[in-house]
């Protein structure tokens, strides 16, 4: 039996989590830094708005595309090694971005940042799985996701100040140096497991496809992926790209009002995340239903806004935005779902596959909204009307419908799997006690 040498869920666990959380906040900061530097970047590289959007889309594509291989590497080498690697890549990419003079060089630098970013979140979630009690897991997972977003917003003002005071090169070079400090902290303080021998499994890279197929064959992994898919994309699309134009150009809001609402959405995400964490901990059997409930809460006000004759009243738009913001915390439930079906030595692969869901839906939705807008009004952003935006935003219903159907489908399959492979697990969850996977290795799925 593996010897436990550190307490679980106590002071050391919180210290390790805080270091990992700091790395995640830095990753989100690097990911979203162009939100502050976009105008300066367009002038520095002499590029159009479409080319500027390439930076964001490319980072998300790299992030999503790397989730599966990162999951395999995470199970092979552990969270500490991947956090170190992620910090090295993000620091190098951000430093390269600071000194880039050409658009191509800047794009390559942002791709490197995206590759490092891809390693961080799932590594922190694996630390949560290893170091915290099952009853603590949902709350710590929610705090991880929410703290990252709050940190990015808090860092936006200092970056804007640095850009105007120091200029492009010095500002980005200075922010990249934070990665060096956190690299030392990870090396000194982070440990992969509270046990003497970690549950890291030696997977040979040539067996990657087989190992991923095994984890993907577990209906719990797919349940987590589709839950992430259906709940995350709307908030991501709204806050990262299309929400601001929809509010200002479509609904006629002021730029200040639109910015304030986007900020308020993050505050609401914190509140709803804490509530969801308590619900998930108390009602483990109904976790996927909780996700679907949040999605329905999003769909209803969106329908009212899109069907309202002319511009919807402000109170309805605010309700729609807050409901949309709840999708971010709901997406965190997907990782808790996957944990019930997956042994510790495979949790990295499972979390990587789950994480693909929401980002894939986000990229597809962003792209399709742009296509619909271009088809309805080829003259560009200045010519878009509220009707054009309403038609384009209706693209979301395709992904909501697909996600809900698949979530319900794999909930049924997942429960049947647990009842067959782990007798008594269903009754345990119905009684309000979370099911802890015994970690017996590969299951017949």
Automatic annotation (TrEMBL):
It is a multi-pass membrane protein. InterPro entries: MFS (IPR011701), MFS_dom (IPR020846), MFS_trans_sf (IPR036259). It is found in: Cell membrane. CDD domains: MFS. The chain crosses the membrane at residues 12-32, 52-74, 81-99, 111-134, 146-164, 170-190, 223-244, 256-277, 289-309, 315-338, 350-371, 391-410. It comes from the Bacteria. The keyword Ribosomal protein does not apply. Residues 16-415 form the Major facilitator superfamily (MFS) profile domain. It holds the Pfam family MFS_1. Its main location: membrane. Keywords: Membrane, Transmembrane, Transmembrane helix, Transport. This is Nitrate/nitrite transporter. It comes from Nocardioides astragali. The lineage of its organism: Bacteria, Bacillati, Actinomycetota, Actinomycetes, Propionibacteriales.
């Amino acid at each position: 039996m593996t010897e436990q040498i550190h307490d679980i869920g106590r002071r050391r666990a919180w210290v390790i989590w805080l270091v990992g959380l700091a790395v995640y906040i830095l990753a989100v900061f690097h990911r979203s830094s162009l939100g502050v530097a976009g105008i300066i970047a367009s002038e520095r590289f002499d590029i159009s708005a479409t080319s500027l959007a390439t930076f964001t889309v490319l980072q998300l594509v790299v992030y999503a595309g790397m989730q599966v291989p990162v999951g395999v590497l995470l199970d092979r080498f552990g969270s500490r090694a991947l956090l170190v690697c992620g910090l090295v890549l993000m620091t190098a990419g951000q430093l390269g971005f600071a000194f880039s003079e050409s658009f191509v060089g800047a794009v390559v630098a942002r791709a490197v940042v995206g590759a490092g970013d891809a390693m961080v979140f799932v590594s922190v979630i694996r630390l949560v799985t290893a170091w915290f009690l099952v009853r603590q897991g949902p709350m710590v997972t929610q705090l991880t996701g929410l703290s990252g977003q709050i940190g990015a917003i808090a860092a936006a003002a200092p970056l804007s100040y640095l850009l105007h005071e120091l200029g492009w090169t010095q500002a980005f070079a200075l922010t990249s140096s934070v990665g060096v400090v956190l690299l030392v902290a990870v090396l000194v303080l982070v440990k992969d497991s509270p046990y003497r021998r970690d549950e890291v499994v030696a997977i040979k890279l040539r067996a990657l496809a087989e190992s991923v197929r095994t984890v993907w064959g577990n209906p719990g992994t797919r349940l987590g992926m589709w839950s992430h898919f259906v709940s995350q994309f709307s908030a991501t699309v709204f806050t990262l790209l299309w929400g601001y134009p929809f509010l200002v150009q479509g609904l006629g809001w002021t730029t200040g009002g639109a910015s304030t609402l986007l900020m308020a959405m993050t505050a609401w995400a914190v509140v709803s995340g804490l509530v969801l964490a308590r619900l998930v901990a108390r009602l483990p059997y109904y976790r996927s239903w909780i996700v679907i409930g949040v999605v329905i809460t999003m769909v209803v006000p969106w329908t009212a806004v899109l069907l309202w004759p002319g511009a919807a009243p402000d109170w309805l738009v605010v309700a729609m935005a807050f409901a949309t913001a709840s999708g971010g915390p709901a997406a965190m439930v997907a990782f808790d779902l996957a944990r019930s079906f997956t042994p510790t030595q495979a949790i990295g692969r499972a979390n990587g596959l789950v994480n693909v869901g929401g980002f894939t839906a986000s990229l597809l939705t962003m792209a399709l909204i742009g296509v619909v807008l271009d088809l309805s009004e080829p003259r560009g952003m200045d010519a878009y009307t509220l009707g054009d935006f309403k038609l384009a935003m209706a693209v979301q219903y395709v992904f909501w419908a697909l996600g809900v159907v698949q979530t319900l489908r794999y909930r049924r399959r997942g429960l049947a799997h647990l009842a067959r492979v782990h007798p008594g697990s269903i009754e345990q969850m119905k009684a309000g006690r979370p099911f802890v996977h015994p970690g017996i290795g590969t299951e017949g799925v």
